[in-house]
Protein: Sigma-70 family RNA polymerase sigma factor
Amino acid sequence: MPQPLTDLLADCRRGSPTAQRALYERLAYQLMGVCLRYCPSQAEAEDALQLTFIKIFTRLDQYREQGPFEAWARRIAVNTSLNAYQQHRQGAPQVDYEAAANVPHPDGTALDQLSTDEVVALINTLPIGYRTVLNLYAIEGYSHQEIGELLGISEGTSKSQLSRARRLLEERLLANNNFTLS
Structure:
């Protein structure tokens, strides 16, 4: 039977390697999913995950038990991954998102016909800026103001990128009615 989280955290605060390993095993899968949504590559997501756990273990004294521990750890993973995104964006060529075509909103959606893996693969085809805003807004629940602060963009840019991400996904769905993983 797994050790209760409060006991596990107390042991981690005391520096127990066994407890740290148990906490890692308990949260790694979930937090890797978060890192993969924001990092531009699998390798960078793995690095972000490791850095996330370093931050968790070195900052456990900052967790005040005012909410679920998993939510606190998830926020660290999001922020760590966003830092990787920012570093990647600074080194990558800039994309002119304003030049993206405005695609009319279709009446129907092909999204209902896709598996979860296909939806994730389709989202991963989006430009990293669009994908990041979409993940932060639709999955993590951040407001456009919070997204703007996290990414160093205006609230309007966040709204615009979300809208364009949705349109681009719809366009790709319509263009590839039989979208499959390759």
Remarks:
- The chain is about 65% helix and 0% strand.
- The domain at 5-91 is CATH 1.10.1740.10 (Rna Polymerase Sigma Factor; Chain: A).
- The first helix runs from residue 5 to 13.
- The two ends are 40 Å apart (CA to CA).
